[in-house]
Design a protein that fits this description.
Layout lengths: L1 H31 L5 H12 L8 H9 L3 H26 L3 H24 L3 H29 L6 H6 L1
Length: 167
């Protein structure tokens, strides 16, 4: 049982690190666009990828993209780097099997679930549903793990001579 719990914690840590790397890439991309005309860059990629700009999925994204200015790019990059830093702390802490990281991850992930629900209600996508479900599962798992650890400690003495010698 302990082995599978440890594996799950490592998988959660890797998932957090993966999300952090994606956000770092987004932040770097936003910074690279800072001194360029976003509309020109988007138009270039539309031509390279041979995408129909009037496509019902592509057109709304392009409309939003063309309205992005330097201030929004700076805010986007700052926000993504900040969130990536939080995810890096969570991921590294979990990979190092630090007890505080389990608390930190449970709290931070749970705190962002309402925002994910709001975003899902605003614009429903399968990817958002999957991310929400994964994050809810992470919170449920970590809370159950932390409560189990805490509840198990109350029914037995915290340390005995045998446990001290065993460690």
């Amino acid at each position: 049982m302990k082995r599978s719990g440890s594996t799950t914690i490592l998988l959660i840590g890797l998932f957090k690190l993966f999300k952090a790397l994606l956000l770092i890439a987004v932040g770097i991309g936003a910074l690279k666009l800072l001194h360029k005309n976003v509309a020109d860059v988007a138009t270039h990629w539309i031509e390279v990828l041979r995408v129909d700009p009037e496509n019902r999925f592509i057109h709304p994204m392009l409309s939003k993209l063309f309205r992005i200015g330097p201030k929004q790019l700076k805010e986007l990059s700052a926000g993504t780097f900040f969130y990536a830093a939080l995810l890096l702390v969570e991921g590294v802490g979990l990979l190092m099997r630090k007890h505080w990281a389990e608390y930190f991850t449970a709290i931070m992930t749970a705190a962002l679930i309402p925002l994910e629900v709001y975003e899902l209600a605003k614009h429903f996508t399968a990817a958002k549903v999957i991310v929400l479900l994964v994050n809810v599962a992470i919170v449920v798992y970590l809370v159950a793990r932390l409560r189990g650890r805490r509840g198990g400690g109350r029914s037995q003495p915290r340390t005995t001579r045998a446990t001290v010698l065993h460690k």
